[in-house]
Design a protein that fits this description.
The complex is a heterodimer of chains A (430) and B (407).
Chain A lengths: L10 H6 L13 H41 L5 H5 L1 H7 L10 H13 L2 H12 L5 H11 L7 H8 L6 H10 L6 H6 L2 E3 L5 E3 L7 H32 L2 H16 L2 H12 L4 H8 L15 H25 L3 H9 L4 H29 L3 H6 L7 H9 L3 H28 L9
Antiparallel strand pairs in A: 1-2
Helix pairs in contact in A: 4-5, 6-7, 11-12, 11-15, 11-17, 12-15, 13-15, 15-17, 16-17, 19-20
Chain B lengths: L6 H5 L13 H22 L3 E10 L8 E9 L3 E5 L6 H9 L6 E6 L2 E2 L10 E4 L11 H11 L4 H14 L15 H13 L5 E5 L7 H18 L2 E6 L2 H7 L2 E6 L2 E6 L1 H6 L4 H6 L4 E11 L2 E6 L4 E6 L8 E6 L5 E2 L6 E12 L3 E8 L2 E9 L12 E6 L4 E4 L5
Parallel strand pairs in B: 3-8, 3-9, 6-7, 7-8, 13-20
Antiparallel strand pairs in B: 1-2, 1-4, 4-5, 9-10, 11-12, 11-14, 12-13, 14-20, 15-19, 16-17, 16-19, 17-18
The chains are: A mainly alpha (430), B alpha+beta (407).
């Protein structure tokens, strides 16, 4: 616009000084005015999301933080043997601790009641079998202990002269411990305080983590193989028939998870529909019916079915936006239908495919109910172990929390990797 | 267009008798025009050399209604033929059948005397420009252009050369590395055209390629497509609902309505001598007057209008004496206060709209209150006022008696 005329609304301020900050007609800085004008809208928007924000804070963020905190917490020894904890800090770990530590221990044994010392003894006994009776015995005799306490305790039980006992106590007086994480990864402290793998017959978590991961991966691949053609069909069918098909896809969503899983039990069990069918057509022998459930196969079949919509829906939403003229253009230029599909259509569905993969894999990796119902012994996921440990003792609960935290971190790492590889902002969830 | 000098040589269409291509734009255009006229003349005499033939083609999608009813059309080699019609008239369906995306329900389509109904699209070798360009969004402009060449298994260096040349042709050199989304509408359009031409097809189909552009760009692109056509001599079948586009670019226009070609003529004929009321109505502005034929003599007829007045018209599409007819009159061929015209009628000026070069007058003539007359703006006052009673007149040759339309 070369027009020299100044519209009345612009005022003199703007024409007078081009370099100075712009101001409104009445001389206030433009930026402040803008902030003020937009401030109300922003405040209102914040107020609208505040209930959800508060809700999430209390039901989601805080519990997660608590979970992570509790999975490393170890307050029993420190709280219940306060004097010892204070005194043992100065011990260098060589030989036996000094007289003061023994004195503090005697004091703690004297002060602590049956239940207090019992709790500590139970806690320590898991790492050093036999320690429980040593401590409980000392507690009963604590009133008679006289200085020097070192000799008194050693006289009470030889075990007090074992440096490993004191090493253990010193280690356990720290209120934060990685012990549950070590356990969750099938490691432990040996009696000398070194981190070593657990005995092979006790190792369980790592293999279940691994099983959870590969089965989730396999389920994701199966949902891609089955969901991709369905999504394509949905996106290309005439609207009326596409809607019908969409209802069929969504139908499982509207059925209780429990019902769906139970239906698979009816279908897949050894006297179930599938086996009867196979026997009837003499594909398998009546005495050799297939085990399709209460093992990995059952978990994979049922979970693939249940998670299929999570693959189909994002794929469908992306495919819907791909104009059919693109593949037509490719074909008009000489590409065979297959080539047009692979070079033009497929690359454009990647955002939906990636979203589906992310959804299905992450949902699968934390799945609980289906593996619990149809997984039997072999087909369980890490969530099933977590749930099982949650109902156990305090240390079992902390172990469960450590497992859950590892699962959470694992998922976050996967998400991060995925973001690096595909780019989350490109994803289309539907 | 500077590229006119370089492109035609290098693109190397199999066109041995067409030496004009190497000379340059001006000569080339004349030459290709001449050649096309010749082809058209041949076609009129013997119907040979047609690059595309629709032979009794019918198309139905639902088995109940025909979208295309018995289409017979010969398109000459090197011709620019436009299929023009309102939406739903069957023109796009025809194009899709030609491209191979829709099978004809009945009849056969020939490409250079070869039946192609059973041939899948990728084996037809037909270039196509789609309505919304259909550029591949996940590829760069260069990759888009290279696509048909890669499919044909060309060497990398040859692909690079051809892509470069094609980009030069549409004046987009240096844009090869960009994504389609980074281009303006007009640039995307050029890429689409270049992509349809880069593999040197003998036939290029364009499905409303300019529909998404604004008016100015559209006009510019019309000329560019026309020039490319003139330079390359490739047959183009162009589908549009925009009559201006059709008239500007085509050698011949096929006006579609209701699945039938209403008229197939060069643009001038279409406008000057429409053969039925639909074409008269669809192409350009048109005044209609309804009446009954009272006499037919030597290609002229006397028509008694519904108001009782009698006028003369060229008998184009009338059934004979006593039949109903609709007269068609172009607004610029009607004069107000005429001298020496064959026909005159009384009218009243209802509205005057100043349009710059012309003044558009809406009159009531013979009961039609939408009778438009375009009065050229000759500077001096026209002396027209709204509400004035005037006499309007036209020559019999400009008034066509066509098939009746229900009013």
């Amino acid at each position: 616009m070369t027009d020299a005329a100044v519209s009345p609304g612009m005022g003199l301020n703007q024409t007078a000084s081009k370099s100075a900050p712009l101001t409104t007609a009445d001389g206030k800085p433009l930026k402040a005015a803008l902030r003020k004008a937009n401030g109300r809208a922003r405040r209102n928007a914040l107020l609208l999301v505040a209930p959800l924000f508060v809700f999430l804070l209390f039901t989601y963020t805080i519990p997660i933080v608590q979970m992570m905190a509790r999975s490393v917490m170890n307050p029993e020894v420190a709280n219940n043997l306060p004097n010892t904890s204070a005194a043992i800090g100065d011990w260098d770990g060589e030989g036996l601790p000094s007289e003061e530590v023994f004195a503090a221990m005697a004091q703690d044994l004297k002060n602590g009641g049956r239940s207090t010392i019992g709790r500590v003894a139970a806690r320590l006994n898991t790492d050093m079998p036999g320690l429980r009776s040593t401590m409980m015995g000392a507690m009963r005799d604590a009133d008679e202990f006289q200085a020097p306490f070192k000799e008194a305790l050693l006289a009470d039980d030889d075990d007090w002269g074992d440096p490993r006992l004191w090493t253990l106590i010193k280690r356990e007086t720290r209120t934060i411990t990685p012990a549950y994480y070590l356990r969750a990864l099938d490691y432990e402290y040996d009696q000398a305080g070194e981190i070593v793998p657990r005995p092979e017959n006790l190792q369980v978590y790592r293999s279940i983590f691994w099983q959870t991961a590969w089965m989730s991966g396999l389920i994701t691949i199966l949902t891609i193989l089955m969901g991709y053609p369905v999504a394509h069909l949905l996106a290309t069918l005439p609207l009326k028939r596409a809607n019908l098909l969409m209802i069929l896809v969504l139908l499982p969503f509207w059925t209780s998870l429990l019902v769906r899983t139970s239906a698979w039990i009816v279908l897949l069990q050894q006297e179930g529909v599938v086996n009867n069918f196979l026997v009837f057509f003499q594909i398998v022998d009546d005495n050799d019916r297939m085990r399709l459930i209460y093992n990995r196969i059952g978990t994979i079949i049922a979970m693939t079915h249940i998670l299929l919509p999570f693959m189909i829906l994002p794929l469908y939403s992306v495919m819907k936006t791909i104009p059919p003229s693109l593949t037509r253009a490719a074909r008009s230029m000489g590409a065979t239908p297959l080539r047009a599909h692979l070079t033009v259509y497929m690359p454009l569905t990647i955002p939906g495919l990636a979203a589906g993969v992310l959804l299905v894999f992450i949902l699968a990796i934390g799945y609980y109910i289906t593996p619990a119902l149809v997984g039997g012994e072999g087909g369980i996921f890490i969530s099933n172990l977590i749930a099982d440990r949650m109902t156990g003792s305090l240390s079992q609960l902390r172990l469960a929390l450590a497992l859950a935290t590892i699962l959470l971190v694992g998922v976050l790492v996967l998400y991060w990797l995925f973001n690096r590889l595909v780019g989350v902002e490109r994803l289309k969830f539907g | 267009m500077s590229t006119g000098d370089t492109w035609p040589v290098s693109i190397g269409f199999d066109d041995a008798d067409h030496e004009g291509l190497t000379i340059g734009k001006a000569a080339c255009r004349t030459c290709s025009k001449l050649k096309r006229r010749q082809v058209l003349a041949n076609q009129a005499e013997r119907s040979v050399g047609a690059a595309v033939t629709f032979d009794g083609v019918q198309k139905s999608y639902d088995g109940e209604t025909l979208v295309v009813k018995d289409l017979n059309l010969k398109i000459a080699e090197g011709e620019f033929l436009t299929m023009l019609g309102p939406s739903g008239s069957g023109k796009t369906t025809c194009l899709m059948m030609l491209a191979g995306f829709e099978p004809p329900t009945h009849g056969e389509i020939y490409l250079d005397d070869k039946a192609i109904s059973q041939l899948p699209p990728h084996k037809r070798g037909i270039g196509m420009v789609f309505q919304n360009y259909a550029l591949f969004p996940h590829m760069t402009v260069g990759e888009n252009l290279a696509y048909p060449l890669k499919v044909r298994g060309m060497s990398k260096s040859e692909i690079r050369d051809r892509v470069e040349r094609a980009l030069g042709m549409v004046e987009l050199s240096g844009f090869g590395g960009r994504r389609p989304a980074q281009l303006s509408g007009g640039q995307q359009q050029r890429v689409a055209v270049a992509r349809a031409l880069v593999f040197e097809p003998n036939l290029v189909l364009m499905d409303e390629p300019l529909g998404a552009l604004d008016k100015q760009l559209r006009e510019q692109m019309q000329y560019e497509i026309k020039h490319i056509h003139d330079n390359l001599g490739v047959t183009i079948v162009y589908v549009t609902h925009d009559q201006t586009e059709a008239l500007t670019m085509s050698d011949r226009v096929a006006v579609f309505n209701d699945g039938v070609i209403q008229q197939l003529s060069p643009p001038e004929t279409l406008y000057e001598n429409p053969t039925n009321s639909f074409v008269a109505q669809f192409i350009g502005e048109n005044n209609k007057l309804s009446g009954t034929v009272s006499k037919v003599i030597n290609g002229e007829c006397e028509v008694e209008l519904d108001t009782g007045a009698t006028v003369h018209a060229t008998a184009v599409n009338v059934d004979g004496e006593g039949s109903r007819t609709t007269l068609s009159l172009r607004p610029e061929r009607v004069y107000i206060g005429p001298e020496g015209t064959d026909n005159t009628l009384d009218g009243r000026i209802e509205e005057l709209i100043y349009l710059g070069e012309t003044i558009r007058a809406r009159l009531t003539v013979a009961g039609n209150d939408q009778f438009i007359v375009k009065v050229p703006n000759r500077g001096s006052s026209t002396g027209l006022t709204e509400g004035a009673s005037v006499t309007v007149g036209w020559s019999t040759a400009d008034c066509h008696a066509l098939d009746p339309i229900a009013t």
